[in-house]
């Protein structure tokens, strides 16, 4: 009862043209609502009846932004970490795990193992004394040079400066080291054939 | 007496020329003890003319051409190392092939040998690994390397091809003062050149045109100083200082056109037969053992 009264009061307010007597009826006149146009006029919807839409300048930019976002997402998916170049030295070739290649482990006699141990100790003593002699030689030569330079300094400054200045023509220094047999005079080494099988990796 | 004597004695080298060794406090020694004072003196325009005549000398070395012979302990150790390496190693393809061939041979010798049972037998000639080894050995025998030891050359001191396993130093017999002495080639220093240039001049002044030395740096490697005998000493030349420069022989193995007795290529242990003791003492310091 109160709801009907409320509804009729709302209708009264919205359509003041209505006569006061017909407040009870729920059916309002079609003409008086903007949702319903006249039957005689064209049937149009609200969007069609609106003003021609203004082309907002933000629109093309919005499209571009959307496209860029999509491209970035695509790039992130496509980003694969580059395959690392394998270090050939660290890969043990499969041949080493072949069991047919294992030699029979020889049983060393006690004398043999003793002999080896003693020889290793003697070798370390020999090498130590060799190293001591070498370092002593080097230090002696170095001392001789510093003394010579001191004496030269006492002699004349300019000669000393000339002696202490670096020699640029010395490096790069190359010298053919000792071989097992002396070189043969007038020997022509034959050309060796070889096929280079180094693997070249590109990232 | 004791203190000055000790200081003088610690200074290297007095060349015993006529058997008289002069130990006297010269101007030189006093100024040597206070280098700072001397530096202050140098600032004065009249540079204190040092009483020492400068010489530049070259220590030309022919470095070893072949490796040295192994000592007994080195031989033993080398053999032991080879043994251990062999024991710890795996068999190579060639060795496996050898074993397979040997096995196949032994199977062939058996009475009930059926060649059809053999796998991988193509019916043609198989080159066994042993055949390959023999072929390689034959090829190696065709090459004759030069011999390591040439006994004839070890005694000929004037040849630079002797003792290929050691480094040799060039000595020449030059007249110093009134005497002919064995020493490293030297030349007196001339004004306007560095001592290294003096040493280079010393090298080129030797008649051998082929001797080309590569000098190792601008700095001298050693020095030797000696006093002239009293009768020659003047105000400006009390003695001489020789500065040595190291050089490596880069080319030229032909004998020098000098008379045979006036030059020698010697090892470090043979130096004592040629050089005077005090000179030798200084020279030995910068010549390496090998």
UniProtKB/TrEMBL annotation, chain A:
Q: Does the keyword Nucleotide-binding apply?
A: no
Q: Which family does it belong to?
A: Belongs to the mitochondrion-specific ribosomal protein mL40 family.
Family annotation (Pfam families) = MRP-L28
Q: Which residues form a coiled coil?
A: 135-162
This chain's protein is named: Large ribosomal subunit protein mL40
Q: Which UniProt keywords apply?
A: Coiled coil, Mitochondrion, Ribonucleoprotein, Ribosomal protein, Transit peptide
Record GO cellular component, one term: mitochondrial large ribosomal subunit
UniProt subcellular location: Mitochondrion
Which Gene3D superfamilies has this protein been placed in? 6.10.250.3440
